[in-house]
Amino acid sequence: MTNITKKLVKLFSNLCCSQCKCGFDEDAIEIKRREGGLLVAHLTCPHCEKSFGVAFVGMTNISLKDDNIEPAEVQDGPEPISYDDVIDAHRFIRNLDEHWQNHLPK
Length: 106
Ligand SMILES: [Zn+2]
What we know:
There is one protein chain. The chain is α+β, with helices and mostly antiparallel strands and 106 residues long. The protein has one domain (3-101). It is 21% helix and 21% strand. The protein contains two helices and three strands; from the N terminus they run H-E-E-E-H. The protein has helices at 3-12, 83-94, and strands at 29-35, 38-44, 51-58. The chain has a three-stranded antiparallel β-sheet, sandwiched between helices. A hairpin with a 2-residue loop joins strand 1 (29-35) and strand 2 (38-44). The termini are far apart. Bound molecules: zinc ion. Zinc ion binds at residues 17, 19-20, 22, 45, 47-48, 50. Zinc ion (ZN) binds at residues 17, 19-20, 22, 45, 47-48, 50.
């Protein structure tokens, strides 16, 4: 498991699947894109395989060398993903093209 994955697992560890109540582990997280301080991760329940769509995580303040995981450093930490959020995220992803990096915070 990479440091990034460890941090994500920690980040999502207080959440559980709304369908089967299974917790999320590294198998639940698939990193789609990673660029600069932004991480796009797809979250799927490892037990019932319910998809929770994608989560955008700002990793700017997290030192990759620091094993002390501080979820408070993550900007806009994950909240329960609503139906609308998932739709928005899918729309956003679908509209990404070769200029997708323009969406990243400077
Ligand atoms: Zn589940």
